[in-house]
Design goal:
224 residues, Arc Repressor Mutant, subunit A, alpha/beta, Rossmann fold
C-alpha cells in the first residue's frame, strides 16, 4: 500500500514516515503545496495524509484538486487546526477522516488501516478470491487454508493486483505504486519480472493466475 504524507514540519514528517514504513507501507512525502500538488496530479496513492497549514497554500485546496481530477484516494486530514468549521469543511470536501495534532502514532496507524480497509477492501478484514485468502492487516496469504510465505514486494504486488482486479495494470503503474520514489533508480522493469515470476510459482496451485498482456502489464484472473 502506498501513502503520501503532506506535512511541512520536518520532525513530524519524519516521525510519520518512519512509523508507517515500519508497518511495510510504501511512503512518499511532500513538504509544501507545490510539491504535493505535483505528486497528487502525477501519481496514485492508497491514502493521503494531508496537513491544512502549508507554507505556500492551503491543504483543503489540494483536496479540491484531488476531487476535481476524479481521483479516489483515501484522505485523512492531519492538522493542528481543530476547529469544528475546519473539520466539517474537510469532510464535506471529501476527506475520509480528520486527525488533530498532537496525536499518538498508534492512532495514526489505526486510522490509516481503517481508511484502507474501507477504500480498498470494502470494509472487510479478510479478502477471499477463489481458494486464496488475504488478511491485509497481518499481510498474510493462504491457499486452501494453508499459509504461503511471500516476501514484502511479492505481497505488495499481489495486494495491488487484487485492489485493481477489475482492470489491466500497466507495468509502469505497478512499479511506481509498489516501489514509490525508488523507481527513479531503475533503468528497466526486470525487477518486476523477477517478483512476478516468484509470485506465480507460489500461487501455481491456487485459483488465482497473473496474466501478462504483452508490452502492457498484468491482470489478475480468478477461476471459480
Amino acid at each position: 500500500m502506498k501513502i503520501l504524507i503532506v506535512e511541512d514540519e520536518p520532525q513530524m514528517l519524519n516521525n510519520m514516515k518512519q512509523t508507517l514504513e515500519l508497518e511495510h507501507y510504501t511512503v512518499e512525502t511532500a513538504d509544501d503545496f507545490d510539491q504535493a500538488a505535483s505528486k497528487i496530479s502525477n501519481y496514485e496513492y492508497d491514502c493521503i495524509l494531508l496537513d491544512i497549514n502549508l507554507p505556500d497554500g492551503n491543504g483543503l485546496e489540494l483536496l479540491n484538486n484531488l476531487k476535481d481530477m476524479g481521483k479516489t484516494e483515501g484522505v485523512i486530514i492531519v492538522s493542528a487546526r481543530n476547529s469544528l468549521d475546519d473539520r466539517i469543511e474537510g469532510l464535506n470536501k471529501g476527506a475520509d477522516d480528520y486527525l488533530a495534532k498532537p496525536f499518538h502514532m498508534a492512532e495514526l496507524h489505526a486510522r490509516v488501516k481503517a481508511v484502507l480497509r474501507r477504500r480498498n477492501f470494502e470494509g472487510n478484514k479478510t479478502i477471499k478470491l477463489g481458494d486464496v485468502e488475504v488478511e491485509p492487516e497481518s499481510r498474510s496469504v493462504s491457499v486452501n487454508g494453508q499459509p504461503i510465505a511471500l516476501n514484502r514486494k511479492e505481497y505488495d504486488i499481489l495486494s495491488y493486483l487484487i485492489t485493481n482486479r477489475a482492470r489491466l495494470v500497466t507495468k509502469a503503474a505497478l512499479a511506481e505504486h509498489v516501489w514509490g520514489d525508488h523507481i527513479d533508480q531503475a533503468d528497466s522493469f526486470d525487477f518486476i519480472y523477477s517478483q512476478i515470476k516468484n509470485l506465480r510459482k507460489k500461487l501455481e496451485n491456487s485459483s488465482i493466475a497473473i496474466d501478462a498482456v504483452y508490452g502492457i502489464g498484468y491482470k489478475l484472473d480468478v477461476n471459480a
